[in-house]
Amino acid sequence: MNPSNQPLNNLHRLRSFEGRIYLVGGCVRDRLLGKKSKDIDFLVEGRDLDYESALKTLQSIFPPAAGSLAEFSQFRTVRWTDENGFGIDCARPRKETYPFSGSLPVVLPAESVSEELKRRDFTVNAIALGLCGPVKDIWVDPFDGRGDVSKKSIRILHENSFKDDPTRIFRALRFAARFGFRLEETTGRELRRALRLEFLKRISWERQRDELLRAFKEACWPEVVESFYKNGIDFGFLPERVPGSLAAALRKRSAVHRLAALYTCARFGKGVRSTLDTYPIVFVPGALD
Fold it and tell me: What are the backbone angles phi and psi of residue 23, rounded to the nearest 5°?
């Protein structure tokens, strides 16, 4: 992946397109922070023909790598990897409802980007920027996400956020560690309440495992692990502090290797070098894709 070939460098090629295409979510947040994004999310308002035209245009500007194109009709999304290895999403507006706490959401069509942003996890991820046509250069930021980016604050959109989707507990702590942000007061209070009421038990082990692996994929994984522990999420083996020698030894290792090495240290009480040499980790490449 070559950062110089960032898809955002080609956004100017959309300026003449007459439809309503927005840049949304994490890539907008990263752009405000001056960071590079691995994934670029586009949202298209309008009719079926408008969406098809926008999708065709986006694929001409960001050509899909061979075999990477995938359509998720239930989520109104087409996803591909471009020729430079960046993930591209093209979606239509959606809204979500949760039948019960911890359930997977029911995804329904929505009419506008404003409705779409209401389903997001945190205000810093609920920002959209119009790229062309009648929405060119228009910001859609109903929850003042830009203000929270400036304040380095992680804030939920409503007080039932962690109840609806308890995996947001993991994401709040992970994003806070990644960006050096803090949890906004109400968000911190609701997160602690969700943990006290054991909302995490309402989601499957598989979903918890996936969130744990995402934590270990972070460059700042020691800080994420320590934050999990501090908030009472230790999975039975996460330590209060990750030794610097262990973090250094695992710096170039995969998420699976990091997790397994930390578990081995906790389970068998081995030193860092002994852990890595005596208990080699074998895993299937691509298991985290």
Answer: -90, 130
Q: Write out residues in the chain with pLDDT < 70, as ranges.
A: 1-6, 270-289
Are residues 130 and 173 located together in one domain of the fold? no
The answer to whether the CB of 143 falls within 8 A of the CB of 198 is no
Among 17, 9, 15, which Cα is nearest to 54's?
17
CA distance 165 to 96: 11
- Check which CATH number belongs to the domain holding 176 and give it: 1.10.3090.10
Please name which of 250, 182, 244, 264 lies closest in space to residue 219, comparing C-alpha atoms: 250
Q: Which of 97, 127, 151 is the last residue of a domain?
A: 151
Task: Tell me how far apart the alpha carbons of residues 289 and 283 are, in angstroms, rounded to a whole number.
Answer: 13
Other CB atoms within a 10 A radius of the CB of residue 85 amount to: 12
Which residue stretches of 153-271 are H helix?
A: 161-164, 167-179, 185-196, 205-217, 221-230, 244-249, 255-268
Q: Going along the chain, which residue ranges are E strands?
A: 20-24, 39-45, 70-72, 77-81, 87-91, 94-97, 106-109, 128-130, 139-140, 153-154, 182-183
Residue 266 lies in a domain: yes
Which are the contacts of 22, defined by CB distance < 8 A and separation ≥ 6? 42, 43, 44, 45, 113, 128, 129, 130, 131, 135, 140
For 95-128, write each residue's pLDDT tens digit: 999 999 999 999 999 999 999 999 999 999 999 9
Q: SS3 for 130?
A: strand
Domain identity same for 147 and 233: no
